[in-house]
Structure prediction request, 251 residues.
Amino acid sequence: MSEKQFEGKTAIVTGATRGIGKSIALELAKRGANVAFNYSKSADEADELKTEIEALGVKAFSAQCDVASTEASASFVGEVKEAFGTVDYLINNAGITRDQLILRMKEDDWDSVIDTNLKGAWNFSKAVLRPMLRNENGGSILNISSISGVVGMLGQSNYSASKAGMIGLTKSLAKEVASKKITVNALALGLIETDMASEMNADYREKFLSMIPLGRLGNVQEVADIACFILSPSAAYITGQVIQADGGLAM
Prediction:
């Protein structure tokens, strides 16, 4: 791949202040893309990431935005379009968990996960389509889903439903916009070494590891590299697909 394969392009990464989103944002910047990202509460982390991105010789844009708000999402995308002139890539990465068995799960735990993970992806996808449709070479949307949306996970009825919904959104939207040279794919991740994973109970972590054929967790750089490939011209003939990166867990 070209070292600067995304030069002159603009990417939006939701929920990028840490973990998977941050790694994707930085890798896109390393490969020449201007990067815009939102944050929910962590203004200091957003400032740090913005500085890191700009140090790579590209432009960065950040603003507070609740992805669950249709109005706020549209406003954010409008600001990015005004700042950079175009939107070429969208990575719907923002997500939360509120794990609990369904009989103990509160309605707010359901609503907040669905609103952030699924409605947030719908909000941003809808907002970026107008500028993408004006692009001569279209664009690309990548939804960061999970194997929880493929096979379901105990205590994650809300999270699994949101991630399965993202897969349905991916396939439907891919059919709607393919004729406009816009690709839409999903990346269904297994357990990745992030802050969230590090907080897992040690016994549960070992049990989970024993179920992964490759015998290890994935790392954020691997995810970023896969994401960049899916967004790249090399994958221009791939759309409506769910790529599983899970060490073989859900095969």
